[in-house]
């Protein structure tokens, strides 16, 4: 029987007293007068009291598939992102400064024989000519230091042909050797880095076999960079010589001011082009481009993120310079002391040269791979940011994880045709 306040059981949409509607606990009418027993069973909140402890607000437990606040699957709200793939030295996503520095350290640690071994050989080759020239100069100056009466003889030796060769020849030979050795080393280390991103290792011989065909293009990039950097210096030097030949003693002040201004402008000039072409070696080795095309490619990749790239390169130079100084200074000081106070002895000259060479080797052995690693990872970061290259790397990494090894064809992924936005 109906109580007169609700639909009858005979109506199509009504509910009987024996069949409570879903999501509603009371079997009777929901329109109950305040103060009656039914007000304790109101399903949505209790303005006049609390529900019985055994009764859920949304109806009996068996009728509710997901009781409120109990094991309800999250549909809306924050869901943590899965960790990015990291098969090798970096996570396969756009990189931060910490990722770049950490990846460079992991590059060195993952393959120390190839990375540090090649860097040590290159650093030793560069340091030996410079150490010999410095040892000769220190030995000549040391004789004047221990015997002031021989000062004139020491000056004549330094001004002689042999003195000039000893003083400047070692430096010039060292720069020439550095031009060749560091260029080759950068190419080999870049190729090792390209494989290490996927978790693979290359020996020094394998890396050289992959890089040797790109050596002419690498030298082309370095030669073009040398021209860009040296032309302003040569023009300014010629201009200063012409001014000095026609200037009087009263013009020295503004000549000095002009020189200081040029140095400031040239530093900005050097940093600008050094940053713009920082990725050219990577483009030569990993993408197979020619010198001019690689420099255009580097210019394009740096566009839009110039200041960040410049800041990371400068910070890297400061860090490696500090560490290299810590490694180099003790040996350089010891070699200088031997050369100064043991002048005239062939043994002390040899010891001085060896100590200076060891110090230079230790410093450069750390500097070369770190700077090359940071430049290579910055190149990868810029491609991930501007070309969605991380999607290509992630797809390849998943396939290589399925196979269980890093195939040599991973090197081909760096070609620009594989970019998601090529």
Automatic annotation (TrEMBL):
UniProt keyword annotations, A-Z: Membrane, Transmembrane, Transmembrane helix
Keyword Membrane on entry: yes
Pro residues: bias regions: 19-29, 49-71
Biased composition (Low complexity): 30-48
Segments traversing the membrane: 115-137, 172-194, 215-246, 252-272, 306-331, 337-358
Pfam families listed in its UniProt record: DUF7847
Record's keyword annotation contains Transmembrane helix: yes
InterPro entries: DUF7847
Residue intervals of the DUF7847 domain: 98-361
Disordered: annotated span: 1-80
Superkingdom: Bacteria
Entry protein name: Glycerophosphoryl diester phosphodiesterase membrane domain-containing protein
Organism ancestry: Bacteria, Bacillati, Actinomycetota, Actinomycetes, Streptosporangiales
């Amino acid at each position: 029987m109906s109580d007169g306040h609700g639909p009858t059981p005979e109506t199509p949409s009504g509910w009987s007293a024996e069949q409570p509607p879903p999501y509603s606990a009371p079997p009777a009418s929901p329109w109950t007068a305040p103060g009656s027993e039914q007000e304790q069973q109101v399903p949505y909140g209790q303005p006049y009291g609390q529900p019985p402890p055994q009764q859920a607000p949304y109806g009996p437990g068996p009728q509710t598939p997901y009781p409120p606040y109990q094991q309800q699957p999250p549909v809306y709200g924050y869901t943590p992102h899965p960790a990015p793939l990291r098969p090798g030295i970096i996570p396969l996503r756009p990189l931060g400064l910490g990722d770049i520095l950490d990846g460079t350290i992991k590059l060195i640690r993952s393959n120390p024989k190839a990375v540090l071994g090649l860097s040590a050989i290159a650093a030793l080759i560069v340091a030996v000519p410079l150490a010999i020239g410095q040892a000769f100069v220190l030995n000549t100056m040391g004789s004047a230091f221990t015997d002031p009466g021989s000062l004139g003889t020491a000056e004549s030796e330094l001004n002689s042909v042999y003195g000039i060769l000893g003083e400047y020849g070692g430096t010039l030979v060292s720069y020439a050797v550095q031009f060749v050795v560091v260029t080759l080393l950068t190419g080999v280390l870049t190729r090792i880095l390209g494989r290490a991103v996927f978790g693979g290792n290359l020996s020094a011989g394998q890396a050289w076999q992959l890089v040797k065909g790109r050596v002419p293009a690498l030298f082309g990039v370095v030669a073009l960079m040398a021209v860009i950097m040296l032309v302003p210096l040569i023009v300014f030097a010629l201009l200063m010589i012409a001014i000095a030949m026609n200037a009087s003693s009263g013009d020295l002040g503004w000549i000095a001011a002009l020189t200081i201004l040029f140095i400031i402008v040239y530093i900005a000039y050097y940093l600008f082009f050094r940053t713009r072409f920082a990725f050219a070696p990577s483009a030569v080795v990993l993408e197979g481009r020619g010198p001019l095309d690689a420099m255009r490619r580097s210019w394009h990749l740096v566009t839009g993120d110039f200041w960040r790239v410049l800041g990371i390169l400068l910070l890297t130079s400061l860090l490696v310079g500090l560490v290299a100084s810590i490694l180099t200074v003790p040996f350089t000081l010891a070699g200088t002391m031997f050369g100064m106070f043991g002048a005239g002895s062939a043994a002390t000259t040899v010891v001085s040269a060896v100590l200076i060479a060891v110090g230079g080797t230790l410093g450069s052995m750390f500097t070369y791979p770190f700077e090359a690693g940071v430049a290579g990872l910055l190149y990868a970061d810029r491609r991930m940011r501007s070309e969605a290259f991380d999607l290509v790397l992630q797809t390849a990494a998943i396939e290589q994880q399925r196979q269980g090894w890093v195939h040599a064809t991973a090197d081909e992924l760096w070609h620009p045709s594989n970019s998601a936005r090529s």
